[in-house]
Amino acid sequence: MTPDPAVSDPAHTYFRSELPLTVTTTLPEQALTFHQCLPAYAPTPLVSAPHLAAALGVQAAWVKDEANRLGLPAYKILGASWAAYRELERLFGPFTLWTTLDELAAQLQTHLPICL
């Protein structure tokens, strides 16, 4: 088998079709519902990246702008907040339906102080 130059040259490898696809784009619906209840939640904006598109030789490229996620300059707050909530739910749940952090905090009052 003749090696594909695009695969053998890491500088030009964008997708290796011979490898199994292990990334999924599905997220539990409850995670999205949780994040939508957080103050200042908004979908991540997409920003046009024409220089990236030109470098890749494609018509258009878009990147997620994670410069301001829930008031913090990082996307990691989504995962951290979801992990903290899941741990609280494991330790003190199940919680009744809540739509604000104040409502969730009220359900945790009997467990204070909390240390995760």
From TrEMBL:
InterPro entries: TrpB-like_PALP_sf (IPR036052). It comes from the Bacteria. PANTHER family: DIAMINOPROPIONATE AMMONIA-LYASE, PTHR42937. This is Uncharacterized protein.
